[in-house]
Amino acid sequence: MSSIKNIELPDIGDFDEVEVIEILVSVGDKIEVDDSIITLESDKASMEIPTPSAGIVSSINVNIGDKIKQGDVVLGIESDQAGDEKTEKTENKSSESESKIVPVVVPDIGDFDAVEVIEILVNVGDELNEEDSIITLESDKASMEIPTPVAGKVSSLKVSLGDKLNLGDLILELESAGGANTTSESVEPAERTPAKQASVATPAASPSTNESTSKTPKGDSHASPSIRKLARELGVDLSKVSGTGQKNRVLDGDIKGYVKQIITSGGSGSAIPKVPVIDFSKFGETEIQPLSRINKLSGKHLTACWLNIPHVTQFDEVNIDQMEAFRQEQKAKGVKLTPLVFIMKAVIQALKQHPRFNSSLDESGENLIIKKYFNLGIAMDTPNGLVVPVIRDVDQKSLTDLATELAETSANAREGKLKPGDMQGAGFTISSLGGIGGTQFTPIVNAPEVAILGVSRSQTKPVWDGKNFVPTLVLPLALSYDHRVIDGAQGGRFMANLNSILQDIREILL
């Protein structure tokens, strides 16, 4: 009994609206599982998309030049369910045969010839599952990981780093249980299974490494083929570079910043001495607590920010007697406003007068991108670590609107309901510890922003008014900024302006 099944575009990683450049099948063609059906091309790589099901092509739903995304229907196939069941029974029967040595060869990878081996992802003795990546090849157009078509133990490696491989060349031999299909057609490169490629991205090997059996670190570095090539040319181990792009993707600026730091620190190896590894259990009882996912992500990002940005921090204290009196008046009327909403409105007023603080450096580091919108990142404490959701269009919202939105956002942050988009698009960040305590702290600039305001707990102090010491409620502020963009005089003027706005409630309410 046959049925019509739609074949949709799978998850192909960090790509959206990718162009169809080839249609590899026609209506009426009989196709097998993993046969390539279309070729897509982004600005970074081209990739062939395989079919997950066998059958006869009944319709083609895309044209050359179409831009498609995950979930779009590519084609329809008429599949034979009875045939599928027969195939499955045959495969089950063959898997019961004795183990054998299976050669794994380079499959058809399209219009490529003599493609270089840049990574060897396995070692002799490794146990592999079907579709595990074994080597990475790179042409002048793209890099691609080659998976094994069968499961088994690696019995021998037949390639070395730097080798140039062609279709059918032997990569390795597996000791496999079962009569697995070992033809080259059964092997598809990871470039054709992009969902797998996104989850198995690995750091590039150093060009000076020649040993075919050397263990290549299986890091989690995300990088495009061009960035991997740049890393190899510069001799950079991608696993040591903190990515600042989406999903921690390593960008051109990350590699250049890493190299620049090594050069400026005068070292030929890592620029930062390693912390000694100590067995603390010999001093007493210890407990291992894994870092949360948020801790790991924010840790990498903050390290990159601290290492790449020349920080300057200026401190000040502002008289908020008038602001607090107004806040208490509103509270008596049933309107609850936190000091943070006043600070947010004041920051926006200051940013309008000092647009340099609401900017980012471009990739070259030679131009400023001035942002005409006013979105603020607000650092929030959660059970799993620090997050920085973004409150958008703060200039267009009232104090009560901001209070309501902050409460909702804070609840979502604590419950882990924030989406990636909720933490993107800020031009300036505020980190407030007023509700916790402390007199001052030095906040780290949240790149690619160029400034951040730290707010500590307010307290009443005796302030000299020219005649007497007057009890005054003062709020400690700390402004950290990127010294490449903002100099001390500009930082001082911004703080003086912000101080003036916070002292006069009328400025905030404008």
Task: Please describe what this structure looks like.
There is one protein chain. Strand 12 (133-138) and strand 13 (143-147) form a beta hairpin. The model is unreliable at 85-91, 93-97 and 179-220 (pLDDT under 50). The chain folds into four domains: 2-94, OB fold (Dihydrolipoamide Acetyltransferase, E2P), CATH 2.40.50; 95-200, OB fold (Dihydrolipoamide Acetyltransferase, E2P) (Beta Barrel), CATH 2.40.50.100; 203-277, E3-binding domain (Dihydrolipoamide Transferase, Irregular); 306-509, 2-Layer Sandwich (Chloramphenicol Acetyltransferase), CATH 3.30.559.10. The protein is elongated, with a radius of gyration of 29 Å. 24% of the residues lie in helices and 27% in strands. With 510 residues, it is α+β, with helices and mostly antiparallel strands. The chain starts with a strand and ends with a helix.
How do the strands and helices of this protein lay out in sequence?
Blueprint: E1 2-8, E2 18-23, E3 30-31, E4 36-41, E5 46-50, E6 55-60, E7 67-68, E8 73-80, H1 81-94, E9 99-105, E10 115-120, E11 127-128, E12 133-138, E13 143-147, E14 152-157, E15 164-165, E16 170-177, H2 194-199, H3 225-234, H4 252-264, H5 293-308, E17 311-319, H6 321-332, H7 339-353, E18 359-361, E19 368-370, E20 376-378, E21 380-382, E22 385-387, E23 390-391, H8 399-414, E24 428-432, E25 451-455, E26 459-464, E27 469-482, H9 488-503, H10 505-509
Helix pairs in contact: 7-9
Short description:
With 510 residues, this protein is an alpha+beta fold. The protein is elongated and about 95 Å long. It is 24% helix and 27% strand.
